[in-house]
Amino acid sequence: MRTEPSGRTFPYVCHTVRPTRQGFLAAIVGVLWAAAMFAGARDFAPMGSGWVWTFYSLAVIGAFAPVGAILYAGYIDMLPNRVRVIRGETVVRAVTFSPAKALGIVAGWAIGTFGFANTFLNGPFSLERWGVIGILTGPAMLGFGVYMIGEVLWQRLRRIRMTPVSLTYWRGFGRITLDWDELGDIVTSTDIRDHEPGREHFDVTKHKPKYLPGAKIAIPAERASATRLPTWTDPDGVVRLLLDAEHFRVEPSALLTAILAMRDHPELREKLGTRESKSFFVGPPWRVRRHMYRNQQWWPKGAAPDGVEVDADGVVKEPVPRLELS
Question: What's the predicted TM-score (pTM) here?
Answer without folding.
Answer: 0.75
